[in-house]
Each structure stands twice: as structure tokens, then as C-alpha cells.
Description:
Layout (H helix, E strand, L loop, with lengths): L2 H6 L11 H14 L8 E2 L2 H8 L3 H13 L3 E4 L3 E4 L23 H7 L27 H14 L13 H15 L8 E4 L1 H13 L5 E6 L3 H9 L3 E8 L2 E2 L1 H7 L5 E4 L13 H14 L2 E5 L24 E6 L11 E4 L2 H15 L4 H12 L2 H27 L4 E3 L7 E6 L5 H10 L5 E2 L19 E5 L5 H21 L1
Amino acid sequence: MHIADYLSTLRLDPASATPLFQQLYDAIKCGVLEFRIRPGAQLPPTRGLAKQLGISRQTVIVAYAQLTAEGFLAGTVGKGTFVNSRLPIAAARRAPGPGAALHLLSERGARFVDHRASMVTHEGAPRAFRLGMPGLDSFPFSIWARLESRCWRQAGADLGYADPAGLPRLRELLAAHLSTSRGVHCAAEQIVITSGSQQALFLIATLLLAPGDAVWVEDPGYRGASGALYAAGARVCPIPVDAEGLSVALGAKHHPGARLVYSTPSHQYPLGMSMSLPRRLDLLAWAVRHQAWVVEDDYDSEYRYDGPPLASLQSLDKTGCVIYVGTLSKILFPGLRLGYLVLPHGLANSFARGKAVIDRHSCTVQQHVLADFMAEGHFNRHIKRTREIYAERHGALLRALETQLAGEIDLAAANSGLHVALAFRRGLDDIALEAAAGRRGIEVRALSRLYAPPESVALRTGTPSGLLLGFASVPADDTRAAVKALGAVLKDFRGRQ
């Protein structure tokens, strides 16, 4: 493009918070980098450009001076100002469109942004029936703020770089809590604090798997786990679940060479059943025979409403093949971004070193606050209190579903966790229903989204349709109203089919 044509398109905004000279500087710089102004082109005299743009000559002089200082322009007394002719800018260097961005990534990078590795994000305030969200209205933020304020006052040297495995005091407190509440056998030295459970899964996939290694994942299952595994180059092998959990027999038959198994034995995500004891023992025995790792994601096991929490799979492991993954997002709040790994002794140091390469260590201040929160008893009191609150909200959801959707749905195992899975007795397009509910302000998740594509699972016939409904994030009255509204959406939806 001729420079005069390019400059004639410029529109500077005097009302903007960005100074006019900066706007002009940015526009000329962008034109050079995107090859809309060619190297060697002569710029208009400062007086002429100022008149053309309706700005002061001093504004143009300042913009030209900054561009000259940075090497974009070169001026010669008596000859004018030119775009530096020595700039190695090729004509092909134009800003890529959105579709071209993927081609700029490496093969490994492209796997991270592939739809198979995509993650769901939340927008706006909590509402029915948001998944994976605890009740922020029940969290003692005043206590947390007091502890954090005290931490800042006493911080001192703790604001430097820290142990990548995490704050030793926090790891000791977690080890004691896990032993009491989940039957986990571990010492503090086996724990690595992570930036949420998603980082824990990424570390596992990156440090333990080579590209092409087979991994069993539950079908249906947590897409965040299969996404991390896929991004790491693993061959993700969906294995169906039944009433007893992950089918070890089908996994062993169809993918006997798997290097790792990802499972949610205490509360299968998303259907909710617990893995039976025979199935747990079968899985551990298979892993020992094949020298495979078993990842136990214990994402919301604290919340069981018809008895005490079940013991962990790790508590049955006598050979060191289970890697236990925990998160504090479901107990406290997701913005905290703290999770943890409980690793066999031979892996703990390697994982700490691997984490150091990724992000040095997780936020030290929040670890100190959490350690104080636990040491002073607030953590256990919060779990006890929220278990009662969520039990009420859970019951309200079940009763409302029975009243509003009787005859339409079947409920999966619904005695624990922070969500309920339901299946429609008469099949429908649950993804279209998800969108229809969203237009009415109701946040649901289509169950079919959590199943692997049929072509990748020869072991399954068809994909069930249903919905996942979170119940922890809003009061019971909001849940009851939302179920009534969902019933109306479903009625309208069936009427249009």
C-alpha cells in the first residue's frame, strides 16, 4: 500500500486516554510491521501530516522521534524522513487470521488447543445448576481474610522462592488429614502441592508417559483428565463403566499394554457410583502384573450423604502403584488454585523437580493461609458445616426432580458429591436441550458430552442422553425454582421435536 493511502485511513481519537502521539506512533509502527508501509518509503513532512490529521505538529514530531529512536524510521537533514530500508520485513509477514493460528503451533502445541483437550470455564455469578462449584455463600471469608492479613504482616523471608513440593507445614497437615478422613497412607515427603488438580494431571501425563503410550480412562469420564493425557501425546483408551465402576476386564482385554489408568473410584465422574471392592482389588492386581500406574482422582469424596466417606483406593495399595490426586477447589473455592499429589516414595522428588521447571512453586502466601486455616480447626469445621448444607441442597434437588420430572428421567447413583446425573427415559438431543436451558438462564451440562465419540469406543453401543445438575453453589430455594423452570424448558423442547 502506498504510504499516503495508508496514512489517509488513520483515525486518531482526541477523547482517548492514549495520547495522540502514542496513537500515531502505534499506527505507523503497525503499518511497518504488517508491511502496509514498505521499507524505504518516505513519510510526509511533519507539518503536512499534522494538517492532514488535524493535530499539532509537535505531536507528529514526538511520534517520529520515538520511531526513529527505535529504528523504524531514519531521517536525513534536507531529504526527509523514511522507513528504515534495512528492516528485514518480508511481504509474507501479515497478521494471520484466527484459523491460521493453529498452524503456527508445534505438533505438540496443537494438541493442547485441540477440541479433545478443551476445558469448560464458568462465566458470571454462581447459578443453578453450575457444575464443580461449591457454595461460596457458606465459606468463612472473614476468617480467611484475617488469616491472610496476619500472613502478610508476618511474611518476611517467606516471600522468596520456596520448595517446589510445597510448604512443609501444609504437607504435614494434609498428610494427617488424609490419613484420618480418607485412609491414605503417606508421609509429608510424599506430597507435592500443585496449582490445582489440573496441574497434577498434567505433571502425571508429562512425567510418566511417552508419546503413544496407552492410557485407560473412564467412559463417560472427566474431560479435563483425558484432555491433559491427549495433550501429552498419550493414546487415550475409553473404557466403559458399569454399576461397579471401571470395567477392568474390558480394559485388560482390549488394551492390555496400557501404562496408566485414570479413575475416580470413590465417586465416579459423572455417573456417581463407587467402585466395588472386588473391582478395586482387580484393578490393583492388574496394575501390579503389568507394571502400570493407577491415578486415583478423589475430587469430591468428602461429601457423602448416607454415611461416612469411603476409604480411598490408595489405602488398599501395598505395592506403590497408586498416585492419589486431590483438590481443594471443591472444599474451599476454585480461585484458590491449590491441589496436591500423594506419590509413591520413588516418584515424589522427581515430581517436585518437574513442577519446579513448570512454575517454580505454587503461591506461597495461600499455602501459609491454608496451613493456618487447617491448624486452627477451621478446615474440618468448614467440611462438617458444608456437608450439612449440601445434604439439604442435595435433598431439595432430588425432591424437586421427583415432583417436576417424574416419569421423564432416571437418576444415576445420587448419594454423594456435588452434582446429580440424570438420564432421559425417552432419548432426546441433550446438547440442544443444554442450549435451550442456557437461553433461559439455566446452566446444565449435557451428559453425552462426557462420553467419548462412538467411533473411538467399539465397546459401547450408543450414547445415552441426559443432564448433569450441580446443586452446591446456590440455596435450595433457587434450586427448586430452577427445576421448575427446567421442566418447562423440557416440555417446550419435546413439543418442538
